[in-house]
Amino acid sequence: MKTIIWVCWPAFIAAGIAESVFFTLIDPQQLYLLGQPVTLPPLTTYSLGFLFFWLICACASLLTWLMLPNAARQALEHETGRGNTAR
Predict the structure, then answer these.
(1) Coil vs helix vs strand at 69
(2) CB distance 36 to 6 below 8 Å
(3) Strand pairing of 36-37 and 32-33?
(4) DSSP collapsed to 3 states, 26-76
(5) What's the chain's average pLDDT?
(6) Half-sphere exposure (CA, 13 Å, Cβ side) for 75?
(7) pLDDT, tens digit, for every residue of 41-57?
(8) CA 86, CA 48: separation in Å to the nearest integer?
(9) CB 58 within 8 A of CB 8
(10) pLDDT at 87 over 80
(11) 33 by DSSP, 3-state: which?
(12) What is the C-alpha separation between 19 and 25, in angstroms, rounded?
């Protein structure tokens, strides 16, 4: 469960930043998808854009997790496992 949080939470933050920058520069009503103008309401476009950015950032975060050396991954799991026990 902690691995999912380690992957999804940074991706969520990065997606929020990416969406803010993207939609600050580009009006959702001026977007084109496959040569056709996007006719969705702006709120729907913002929501779909955020989900798209979150998916991209989650893939990048997951690749980072998968490329960690086993020693580093085990050290992270050991360190967070200790935090759950009563001292």
Answers:
(1) coil
(2) no
(3) antiparallel
(4) CCHHHCEECCEECCCCHHHHHHHHHHHHHHHHHHHHHHHHHHCCHHHHHHH
(5) 88
(6) 5
(7) 999 999 999 999 999 99
(8) 42
(9) yes
(10) no
(11) strand
(12) 10
Residue with tokens 């992957």: 7
Q: How far apart are CA 7 and CA 48, in angstroms?
A: 20
Type of residue numbered 50: F
Q: Which range has the worst mean pLDDT, 22-26, 50-54, 66-70, 73-77?
A: 73-77
The length of the chain in residues reads 87
Find all residues with CB under 8 Å of 67, minimum gap 6, and list them. none
Would you give the distance in Å from CA 43 to the centre of its chain?
19
Beta bridge partners of 33: 36
Q: What angle do CA 7, 12, 16 make, to 5 degrees?
A: 155
Amino acid symbol at 61: S
